[in-house]
């Protein structure tokens, strides 16, 4: 029998069962949060009994909040949802609206994000020769580059080779290979890190590189500390010579900052190589562990000057709240000589989207592709929870003759989200959008391909979470060599899908129809 490979693990084994839950950090936080909410409810009920005048104060407060609601920049679907919430829970709903809009508990974070973006707005200089090459070709790539540079610092690059991975397993193999080549630094930023085969192999490489003097930094979303990792995991990594941080860890204080998660997936090595896509660092992403059938995910690897944009994105998040030394940090890692691939064709724009600014960059780029397409737009997404603007863009593209096709999961990871996605099927189908569900399992890929010349691969789902509430990133490609491979992979995946038809929409199960219609009322909050 073949000897099982030893996998590095830092977390101590824990006993399973009710005692583990009761004495866990998650349980303590949950209890404290519930107590805070209960305290507010008790105070409200107590005063409601003793002060009938509260009713009139409540009516005035709700009326003022409704006026406020209609004058916000919020999407119209979200406004309807908040109206529903306030109709059922008048004063509680109005307070909740004020609380979320005021970003109580998260204003400091918003200021920190803005400070880092403003500080580094000119960190990467746009090569005018590059943008002049595409300025008058009618693709609109120069326009989207100008828009993205208005939101942050996202130049368009040439001389960057892009390799596409149609499966997480292939990305994983390439990651291990590139990690072994690291000489100066390794920066990793992932939404999910979970101990197992995938993370164990990567961690082994990180520990060895840190011992060899390579600067290794790892950042993961703070939700991992109550789901996949122990709360002190960053300390375990630091003990191995790895600089580590948890982004926005969960604390026993009610705050709106929990709404904003770091959903990005970035690996940068020496400023020469970068990885981006939907693949997190857990075994289901490489089909080592089966959860929802076959896990279909995608990613890209960049080699060339465009890697610098991912270095900048990582440093911006890493330096949130840092008052000293962060300028030197940017100068040190962004000043390394760039590597150019003169044989690489096309143009690349790595970009990110923040929920704490006034821009909706992720949605804007997707809509730009839909509105400019002349032949086709092919899309893979795990979730389909659309606002009115994106739904209109999909329908309009199909109605003017563009071949719009969507591939979604055949086996969902979240049944409520899947039921909600199905509420869009009829409108999209009637407009001419072709919808497919992946028979072998779960689609986690987030990608657009259009007209054989444009593609986007990244972390941005077609749902409110990604488009409004998460930190996200993606790679925009124009005329790169890998676009034909991306479209070929789409067609190969399509062959394994079942098409959604008029009949299948009509014959959908009652439970999905009911769940979807109920969930749609609060879809912007999901």
What descriptors fit this protein?
526 residues; alpha/beta; Endonuclease, Chain A; 3 domains; nine-stranded mixed β-sheet; seven-stranded mixed β-sheet; 21 helices; 17% strand; globular
Short structural description:
With 526 residues, the protein is of the alpha/beta class.
Q: What does this 3D model show about the protein?
A:
By secondary structure, the protein is α/β, with parallel strands linked by helices. Helices cover 44% and strands 17% of the residues. The chain has 3 domains: 85 residues, no CATH class; 245 residues, Endonuclease Chain A (Endonuclease, Chain A); 165 residues, Endonuclease, Chain A. Strands 5, 10, 11, 12, 13, 15, 16, 17 and 18 form a 9-stranded mixed beta sheet that branches. A 7-stranded mixed beta sheet has the order 1-9-7-6-2-3-4, with helices on both faces. The protein has a two-stranded parallel ribbon with strand order 8-14. Helix 11 links the parallel strand 3 and strand 4. Helix 3 crosses helix 5 and helix 9 runs parallel beside helix 10.
How do the helices and strands line up, and which of them pair or pack?
Layout: H1 18-22, H2 25-50, H3 54-70, H4 76-88, H5 90-102, H6 107-119, H7 128-133, H8 141-151, E1 161-165, H9 168-179, E2 185-190, H10 197-211, E3 215-221, H11 233-238, E4 243-247, E5 261-262, E6 266-269, E7 273-277, E8 294-296, E9 299-303, H12 307-318, H13 326-334, E10 347-353, H14 361-372, E11 376-380, H15 388-399, E12 403-409, H16 415-422, H17 425-431, E13 434-438, E14 441-443, E15 447-450, E16 454-458, H18 464-469, E17 470-478, H19 483-494, E18 497-499, H20 502-506, H21 510-520
Parallel strand pairs: 2-3, 3-4, 5-17, 8-14, 11-12, 12-13
Antiparallel strand pairs: 1-9, 2-6, 6-7, 7-9, 10-17, 11-15, 13-18, 15-16, 16-17
Helix pairs in contact: 3-4, 3-5, 4-5, 9-10, 12-13, 14-15, 16-21
């Amino acid at each position: 029998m073949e000897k099982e490979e030893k996998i590095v693990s830092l977390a101590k084994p824990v006993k399973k069962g009710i005692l583990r839950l009761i004495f866990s950090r998650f349980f303590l936080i949950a209890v404290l949060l519930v107590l805070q909410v209960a305290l507010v409810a008790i105070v409200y009920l107590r005063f409601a009994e003793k002060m009938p005048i509260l009713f009139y104060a409540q009516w005035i407060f709700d009326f003022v909040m409704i006026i406020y609601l209609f004058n916000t920049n919020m999407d119209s679907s979200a406004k309807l949802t908040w109206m529903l919430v306030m109709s059922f829970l008048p004063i509680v709903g109005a307070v909740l609206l004020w609380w979320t809009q005021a970003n109580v508990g998260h204003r400091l974070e918003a200021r920190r994000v803005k400070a880092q973006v403003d500080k580094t707005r000119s960190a990467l200089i746009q090569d005018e020769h590059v943008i002049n090459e595409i300025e008058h070709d009618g693709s609109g790539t120069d326009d989207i580059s100008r828009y993205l540079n208005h939101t942050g610092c996202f130049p368009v690059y040439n001389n960057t080779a892009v390799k596409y991975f149609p499966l997480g397993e292939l990305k994983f193999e390439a990651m291990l290979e590139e990690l072994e080549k690291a000489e100066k630094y390794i920066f990793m930023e992932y939404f999910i890190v979970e101990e197992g085969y995938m993370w164990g192999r990567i961690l082994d490489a990180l520990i060895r590189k840190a011992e060899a003097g390579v600067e290794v930094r790892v950042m993961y979303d703070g939700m991992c500390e109550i789901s996949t990792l122990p709360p002190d995991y960053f300390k375990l990594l630091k003990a191995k010579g790895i600089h580590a941080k948890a982004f926005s860890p969960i604390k026993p204080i009610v705050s709106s900052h929990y709404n904003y998660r770091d959903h990005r997936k970035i690996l940068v090595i020496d400023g020469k190589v970068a990885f981006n896509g939907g693949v997190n660092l857990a075994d289901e992403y490489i089909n080592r562990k089966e959860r929802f059938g076959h896990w279909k995910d995608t990613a890209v690897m960049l080699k060339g000057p465009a890697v610098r944009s991912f270095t900048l994105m990582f440093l911006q998040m890493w330096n949130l709240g840092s008052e000293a030394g962060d300028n030197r940090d940017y100068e040190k890692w962004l000043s390394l000589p760039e590597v150019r691939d003169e044989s690489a064709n096309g143009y690349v724009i790595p970009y990110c989207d923040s929920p704490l600014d006034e821009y909706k960059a992720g949605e804007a780029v997707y809509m730009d592709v839909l509105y400019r397409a002349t032949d086709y737009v092919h899309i893979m997404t795990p979730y389909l929870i659309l606002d009115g603007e994106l739904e209109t863009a999909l329908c309009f593209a199909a109605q003017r003759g563009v071949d719009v096709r969507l591939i979604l999961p055949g086996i969902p990871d979240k049944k409520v989200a899947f039921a909600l996605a199905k509420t869009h099927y009829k409108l999209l189908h009637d407009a001419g959008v072709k919808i497919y569900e992946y028979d072998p399992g779960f689609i986690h890929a987030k990608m657009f391909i259009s007209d054989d010349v444009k593609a986007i691969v990244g972390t941005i789902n077609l749902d409110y979470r990604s488009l409004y509430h998460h930190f996200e990133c993606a790679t925009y490609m124009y005329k790169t060599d890998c676009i034909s491979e991306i479209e070929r992979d789409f067609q190969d995946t399509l062959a394994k899908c079942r098409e959604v038809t008029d009949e299948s929409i009509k014959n959908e199960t009652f439970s999905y129809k009911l769940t979807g219609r109920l969930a749609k009322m609060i879809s912007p909050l999901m």
